[in-house]
Amino acid sequence: MIIQPKVRGFICTTAHPAGCAANVHEQIGYVHEQNGYAHEQNGYAHEQNDYAHEQNDYVQANKTNRNGPKNVLVIGCSNGYGLASRITSAFGFGANTLGVMFEKEPSERRPASAGWYNTVALEKAAQQQGLFAKALNMDAFSTEAKTMVIEEIKANMGKIDLVVYSLGAPRRKDPVSGEVYSSTLKPIGQQVTRKNLNTDTKVVADITLEPASDAEIFNTVKVMGGEDWELWIEALLDADVLAPGAKTTAYTYIGKELTWPIYGGATIGKAKEDLDRASSAIGARLSSTVQGQSFVSVLKALVTQSSSAIPVMPLYISALYKVMKEEGTHEGCIEQIFGLMFHQLYSGQALNLDDNGRIRMDDNELKDSVQQKVAALWAQVNTENLSEVTDFNGYQEEFFRLFGFGFASVDYAAEVDPIV
Ligand code: NAD
Fold first, then answer.
1. Most CB atoms closer than 10 Å: which of 187, 222, 340, 345?
2. Per-residue pLDDT tens for 149-182?
């Protein structure tokens, strides 16, 4: 079939297998480059023996050189920050990786979701380097997923030394009561009116968001808070599959004034606050059992399937990209996560922690000078000048790349088999 982008609202309902593979290969290339490895240009000649051997030597060398994780579990492994975490673990540290994801399989009539194709490409590249790489396509909130992951670790991996919790989910079925909770993206306490960009119609207009009810706040914390992260760590501890010194991190966003009313101070922010509570509890459990540690890592705002669904964020991100690209400090998922793992978690040096013990990777975004420039663009932007005032073109480009569209190496007019 010929696969073209089909956008509905803030989501693209198609994905291109070759484009998603190109996206993953680019990220692998970045990690290799950063790691001082001269990644072969045009380098997807995996079939060629010499390339495969070189890669193998590289991975072997890394396994011994780096004091990084050897067995990594990524919960939410197929897109965005979780995908970058898996790529950095496998290709930066030579780690075996096990992932959990919730993706749509391909059929003769419909392409798979992007995360499916990302995962196939990642695992092929990892396996060619002699690394164990597997993902379970199931609901990470379920007890079954935890049981299956533990079986897989026992059968095929060593004990886990890093657990990354990177879910972006709209709902959660409670594993005990069976009740389904849905998250809401609403302000707390009072109505908020804010400039907003409809990425589909490209219209900039005010939207008014009504405040969340107590039940909506509670439900959002149930979905995006720390309860499930704690259940994962308890299950892994119970099964004795965490290595001595094991670390875990969950990802959060904080932001400043511009996004506060719809993120930090809103329902999603409440859920993220709960991650701090969970991290303290998990840290105490890990330190008293396996001498392990737990961190919440604060990452910068960027285009992912999850962030594109949050009101106001696409406009903020378009303005932020403009400013950070001009300043030369723009980063995507892979740059952020490579920095988190190599310069923070496994640098062997003191971590850059804030007063709440969180790891900060958002310093450049939150600088006053950057926020002031974003605020100035924000004040000017309207439907007519959107592309000049902000980097909406860059936003869109990156959005389509999430689904495997816009890669020069891919012929989008050609027939492609959706089943991979
Ligand atoms: P994403 O949409 O790109 O990826 C979400 C991942 O979760 C996918 O791999 C998906 O398959 C998986 N998933 C969703 N529901 C699942 C389920 N029920 N079972 C198993 N897997 C499931 O999201 P993202 O933007 O990378 O977000 C990941 C984390 O990073 C979130 O906690 C988010 O708040 C945080 N974060 C995001 C940003 C941002 O700007 N995008 C910034 C800072 C922090």
1. 340
2. 999 999 999 999 999 999 999 999 999 999 999 9
Q: Does 415 reside within a domain? A: no
Q: What separation in Å is there between the alpha carbon of 73 and the centre of ligand 1? A: 15
Counting ligand 1 atoms within 8 A of each CB, the residue from 251, 318, 366 with the most, and so the one to mutate, is: 251
Q: Does 328 map to a domain?
A: yes
| Position with higher pLDDT, 144 vs 38 | 144
Residue 11 lies in a domain: yes
Residue 64 CA to ligand 1 center (angstroms) comes to 31
- What type of residue is 7? V
* Ligand 1 first shell, C-beta below 6 A: 76-82, 100-103, 115, 139-141, 166-169, 251-253, 299, 301-302, 304-307
Residue 239, pLDDT score: 98
419 — phi, psi (to 5°)?
A: -90, 105
Range of the domain at 301: 7-401
Q: With bands split at pLDDT 50, 70 and 90, how would you rate the model's confidence at 35?
A: confident
Per-residue pLDDT of 68-107, as tens digits, reads: 999 999 999 999 999 999 999 999 999 999 999 999 999 9
- The CATH number for 92's domain is 3.40.50.720
What is the end-to-end Cα distance of the chain in Å, rounded?
13
Please state the domain count of the chain.
1
Q: Give the mean pLDDT of 379-390.
A: 97
| Residue 420 belongs to some domain of the structure | no
